[in-house]
Amino acid sequence: MIKGLLSVLLVLVAVSSSLGKPEKNIAKRGKRIPQTLSRGWGDQLIWAQTYEEGLYWARMQNKPLMVIFHLEDCPHSLAMKKSFAEDKDIQKVADEDLIVLNLVYETTDKHLSPDGQYVPRIIFVDPSMTVRADITGRYSNRMYAYEPSDIKLLLSNMDKAKKLLKTEL
Hints:
mainly alpha
């Protein structure tokens, strides 16, 4: 009997102490709370957790999905991540006009690796779930690869993805 009362008392104390605290996910002063899903690519962005979730949000919000394939310990991925996260224009377009997803593993969708499985690789997917094979980087042997020096081309391709979306649909 005493154990039962003690258990109820502990539950009540735990519930009442959490009621007085503000929710952890509420942003303060207009800034978003950093998400671990960013993996350093932009803590203020809302990141999809899976490819399927990214496709869902792309359809629901009628925005293109940008999928970034990378590895945590790859020097090329790390350099691109740094440039991507520090570029204010890239972050603004990614935040306002795209659904973003970064993956450290390959998906089962073969359309996301049309010319091989290399990193870093950035692919755009239309809300109609069509992989945008026409939006590529500057390399012929790794068509969807970008380097830090390609950040302006990436920004241009991000703009291309959203502009073509509006004229196609």
